[in-house]
Amino acid sequence: MIRNWLIDVEFDQYLLGGVPSMVSPNSTLTDPIWCRRVPCAIWHDVTILAPWDLYKETGDKAILSRQYKSMTIWMRVFPRGKVSLAHLWHPTVFQLGGATDAGMVFNMFLIQSLDLMVQISVILDKTAEQEFYVKDCQAAREEFQAEFVTANGRLVSDSQASHALAICLDMLTPSQRNRAGERLVELVRKNEFKISTGFAGTPYVCAALATTGNIQVAYAMLLEKKCPSWLYPVTMGTTTLWERWDSMHPDGSINSGNMKTSFNHYAYGAIAKFLYEKVAGLQQLEPGWTKFRIAPQIGADFESASAGHESWYGLITFSWETKVMDGGKEEIFLEPTIPNDTRAEIVLPQDDGELRQEVGSERWNLRSTFIRNHNWPVTALPPK
């Protein structure tokens, strides 16, 4: 279905001079606002991001080959800047955005797309294109650093979203990354673990905390119930995700703001990736799921989790559970089912370290003893 949809996206690009429509197939042709040919970062990067995700899921290079022209057209037609910022987005182009510096956000996604074009060109043996995108990506990174990162490594936009995106999209040097992780922890704790990201930053904020060694802070944010948070709508009796964190006020009244609001909106549901990869622990390592990792991140008060994924080679399923032993240690039990022709890297906590092993296609019963990190609950910081 998504393959066919990408063909529609490419067709709409031809009608709009290379720029994708805001909806494909383009049902906005008669709308005076949404029918306009307006290049848009993140949303229009779907020309690259969607084929890439399909390739990772299936391992089928034909998907990348089929969509390569669409990708290169988009990379060629969006407006670039001038002089010192010639490899970044032109700063005057209207972009959908929020509190975080819009230029910083959409240029991080641009660099991600350029980096993917390098990888895709390598996979398809397009040497000349690979060399072109390597130079383009490197130049864009250098301009990004000059424009949005200070000499001391601080980000010019001091928000949860800016730090999360910079960490997860690999915009920083190792020392800058460490500093960004520390600052993100401060911002989250000073905000009492309430989230302050929008559509662009929400998929990355908990992952950024986890990958910089702050899994307990990530879990504190995940489990927060005050508005704005993922669990606030649950306290209001909802069974779907909202378009806004505060689409409904605590008194039950609707927050219409200056436009209508949706009560069934996927965007903030992107936290599901974090639930799979960190809480349950399922992480893809190779395209097509020929190799994957199961590495639950034990934290908070979580004592069990289970997950499943319908891979190209069959159903991956597993569950884990922890039990307290005499002497304060805990034991973790993991039962994974590994499909035929695939391999799994198992990473379990052991004592105060970890146990790693690789297993093949079979149903396994694995266990390990470990010492739980009892730095929970995490405390908030004063806002000032």
TrEMBL record:
**Residue ranges constituting the Alpha-L-rhamnosidase six-hairpin glycosidase domain according to the UniProt record:** 1-279
Q: What class of enzyme is it?
A: hydrolase
Question: Domain Alpha-L-rhamnosidase C-terminal, which positions?
Answer: 281-360
Q: Which reaction does it catalyse?
A: Hydrolysis of terminal non-reducing alpha-L-rhamnose residues in alpha-L-rhamnosides
EC numbers: 3.2.1.40
Q: Which superkingdom does the taxonomy of this entry point to?
A: Eukaryota
Entry-linked InterPro entries: 6-hairpin_glycosidase_sf, 6hp_glycosidase-like_sf, Alpha_rhamnosid, Bac_rhamnosid6H, Bac_rhamnosid_C
For biological process, the GO terms are: carbohydrate metabolic process
GO MF, one annotated term: alpha-L-rhamnosidase activity
Keyword Mitochondrion in the entry? The reply is no
Query: What protein does this entry describe?
Result: alpha-L-rhamnosidase
Native source species = Clonostachys chloroleuca
Q: In the record, what lineage is assigned to the organism producing the protein?
A: Eukaryota, Fungi, Dikarya, Ascomycota, Pezizomycotina
